Amino acid sequence: MTDTAAEVRKEPASAAVRDSVKDYYGNILKKTSDLKSNACVPSAKPIPAYIKKALSEVHPDVIARYYGCGLVVPESLEGCRVLDLGCGSGRDCYMLSHLVGESGRITGVDMTENQLEIARKFIDYHTQKFGFKKPNVNFVQGYIEALREAGLEEKSYDIIISNCVVNLSPDKAGVLREAYHVLKDGGELYFSDVYSNARIPESLRANKVLWGECLSGALWWEDLVRLAEEAGFSTPRLVTASIISVGNEELEKLLGDYKFVSATYRLFKLPKNSEKTPCLVMYDGNITGSEDKIEFDAQYTFKVNEVMEVDGEMACILKNTRFSEEFTFRAQTSGTCAAKPKVTPVNPFELIEQLGSAGVVSPTGGCCGPQGSCCS
Q: Could you tell me if 57 and 307 are in contact, meaning their C-beta atoms sit under 8 angstroms apart?
């Protein structure tokens, strides 16, 4: 075990944390407004029309028990098998159910039975609402650190999403390992979460309210990079980042100088020993909702029919994932005119500073922004 892994795993005992989170989200919180801080509230950023439409069709009772942090909607979803870690009442599952279509499949996993009861109650409602002949959603009770124990098969999902949930787990390394196992080769973990500017001490991690509010369980962003690599993922690609203002004087006093951001990262399960050769790519413009461009991450925005220079890792990602058919690839040659990517950090705090604003938020990713409705 590395020193980093040992430090990260010095968290409150798993059973105690799980019981505390179950109680917090199953009994104490009854609606979104019961949250005691701004760490987990929906983003007020504009939402693309196709996502807004899907959200508008989710039953109000499901949305009322939603405690996520905005939207986690990667591109190119049609026909995909998607797993939602910590699905809660199922808001994101039902929204994604609409987006993947009847040929796709959504699985939501959560440990809180109270939340799953609400989610399961509306399966038939959404099947009829979307005009499907049969449900394309199912919900599983289990722990996100033990997906295979919950009955999920290895290499069975194209995409895994998670919305402000990994911070609640007592074993973040376990979450990443399990996600890697159940993803297909070429699959993606696309998730939003809360990150800190340094490792949070045990004294704060033991505070049930701070943990339940998605603060004291937050990973130091550098530990995410290391743990992702240990699990087998590609280097995390930072998509969005925004500063979290806690908004609770009592909690702010306890937290002292610790700072927090919400950030969305993309992690890919790439083939072992795959070639990583820089090349030129051109986006073909055939992805629903991204007909003009894809804001892939903070570094790369691919505009339709524009030649873009990509580094070896990005070339490997585009060639070995569901995006392979969405791009035209060409070898680099001298004298070719091509757009160049931005130079951006992996550190979300640096990205925010670099932009000189409160943050950068993609229309389809990002968590924990200013309070507002994701459905209005």
A: no
**Would you say 45 and 361 are in contact if contact means Cβ atoms under 8 Å apart?**
yes
Task: Specify the pairing of strand 260-268 against strand 237-243.
Answer: antiparallel
Nearest to 222 by CA among 346, 41, 118, 48: 346
Q: Enter the pTM of the model.
A: 0.86
Buried b (16+ CB within 10 A) or exposed e, 30-68: eebeebbbbbbbbbebebeeebeebbeebbeebbebbbb
Find out whether 129 and 94 touch, Cβ atoms under 8 Å. Answer: no
pLDDT tens sequence across 310-329: 999 999 999 999 999 999 99
pLDDT grade for 65, boundaries at 50, 70 and 90: confident
pLDDT in tens, 203-223: 999 999 999 888 999 999 999
Q: State the pairing for strand pair 183-196/260-268.
A: antiparallel
What are the two backbone dihedrals, phi and then psi, of residue 309, each rounded to the nearest 5 degrees? -85, 130
Cβ atoms of 92 and 126 closer than 8 Å = no
Strands 359-360, 237-243: pairing kind: antiparallel
C-beta atoms surrounding 362 within 10 Å: 19
> CB neighbours of 238 closer than 8 A, spacing ≥ 6?
263, 264, 265, 297, 298, 299, 344, 345, 346, 347, 348, 351
The rounded distance, in Å, linking the Cα atoms of 62 and 116 is 10
Judged by phi (left if over 0) then psi (alpha if -120 to 50, else beta), residue 194 lies in beta
Whether the CB-CB separation of 1 and 171 falls below 8 Å is answered with no
Q: Are 220 and 195 contacting, i.e. CB atoms less than 8 angstroms apart?
A: yes
Q: Are strands 307-310 and 327-330 parallel, antiparallel or unpaired?
A: unpaired
Q: Which residue has the higher pLDDT, 155 or 4?
A: 155
